[in-house]
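Regression check, flavin-adenine dinucleotide case 473:
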Amino acid sequence: VPKEMWVDICVVGAGAGGLSVAAGASQMGATVALLEREKMGGDCLNYGCIPSKSLIYAGRVIENLRSASRLGIETDVLRVDFNKIQQNIAEVINAISPNDSAERFEALGVKVIRETGTFVGDNILRVGDTVLHAKRIVLAVGSATKIPSIPGLENVPYLTNKTIFDQTAAPEHLIVLGAGATGSELAQAYRRLDCEVTLLEMCTLLNQDDPELVDVVRTQLLREGVNLIERADVLRADATPNSISVSFKKGDREHKVVGSDLLLAAGRAPNLQGLNLESAGIDYDEIGIKVDSRLRTSNKKVFAIGDVINGPKFTHVANYHAGVVLRSALFKLPAKVNYAAVPRVTYTDPEIACVGMTEATARKKYTDIRILRHPFSQNDRAVLQGMTDGLVKVITTKKGIILGAAAVGPDAGELIQSWILPIKKRMKISTLANLIMPYPTLGEANRRVATNFYLPRLFSDKVKWVVRFLLKF
Ligand SMILES: Cc1cc2nc3c(=O)[nH]c(=O)nc-3n(C[C@H](O)[C@H](O)[C@H](O)COP(=O)(O)OP(=O)(O)OC[C@H]3O[C@@H](n4cnc5c(N)ncnc54)[C@H](O)[C@@H]3O)c2cc1C
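Current build output:
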């Protein structure tokens, strides 16, 4: 006879989104069960943000050392010990994991159950040998690498974000399928760690980002020797005992690239297997679980958040979703999602970061916009660090309301933070133009780009006439 259990909130999935809901709900007095079938912490901690940024950091350090001679620092021998790089990634994950651990959540009063959750009714889940009844259920089950339908792929050993960070030997020649954020970041990191890398993309590099900014990253990837092939239509994949080949068409010619390893990074698919959503009347499609603006599914007792729904797939968005759901589920407030000021960072070097509207979206919505630019070649800190590639770009209305901001360049992910509040609050560009920023910092570029809004007017003939007139007295 199965055990029965009753809780206020059941959270399925202990990744970025689920952990935030569970911690918040429990600390605010609800009884909470948290189900996790695999590793606590989900993708971000175990197979995503943390291992990837750790590997990228290793790549950045070696690249800095390679270019240190321009500062007068000679490094004779640089050698990559891939086994140690992998060990370091594991240590970083270990160092962060107590935050997401079952022990920590049990201590907060959450009942953590290390099992798969499967619906057997509207608000009832089967969890191992327990039948769990919950007043509200939050699905935070995440996503996984989408396996593209490429002829031959079924017979080819491939890596995904779940397996690549466990490799203790460097791939000799890594073929990466997909030049989105994950594919581009990892392609550059492996190249810097002395691997040959081919990056294949059916569309164009980082096609979610502003092409003007992407150009800077493209130039850098090519300069570092990433074999980037855009507009490649992959035809098939094959394997021999020692190699993997991918055939593709570009233009009207067929080509073949032969490598040692293949990484799939061409999109994400929702983790729906085993949930039995039909028995709870929850609608979904291949993109994910369908939700309304309050993150409610077609079953009003069930919410879905994070990567499993259609929307931006980031840890900070999953966390944001958690806050929206907590307001709805605990306080019955009609909280809705608003993506107007969601920042996004691609951790290539240089980084690309943006928040708010891109130039393309702003042009669709407004007939008259202003585009402001400030290149890092005019920022003294960037010059002294030898990192002058890139720019800050800001889009405003004619009257100076900030619609969007983006940057490509050193620490773009940090620089973009100054624009989140102004965009969220629909502030005017004068707010930033009138600030005093410390010198010499990269952040000065944010003020300089803002002052560009006023330059055409400030240095106009009309102003010159007024100044000359006033100086007569
Ligand atoms: C390589 C890579 C790099 C990334 N880098 C960044 C980055 O730098 N910054 C950023 O913001 N985002 C990054 N992301 C995205 C980020 O990892 C995700 O947006 C985030 O993890 C989504 O959180 P989530 O809670 O929706 O899902 P997840 O973190 O995937 O958690 C879902 C959990 O649910 C569990 N689960 C699934 N089904 C069930 C079930 N039926 N029962 C019980 N448990 C279940 C899974 O085992 C998993 O642990 C990266 C992703 C990848 C792949």
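Comparison notes: The pocket of flavin-adenine dinucleotide is lined by residues 12-18, 35-39, 42-44, 48-49, 52-53, 116-117, 140-142, 161, 182, 271, 274-275, 306-308, 313-316, 318, 347 (CB under 6 Å). Residues 49-66 form the longest helix (18 residues). No diff flagged against the previous build.
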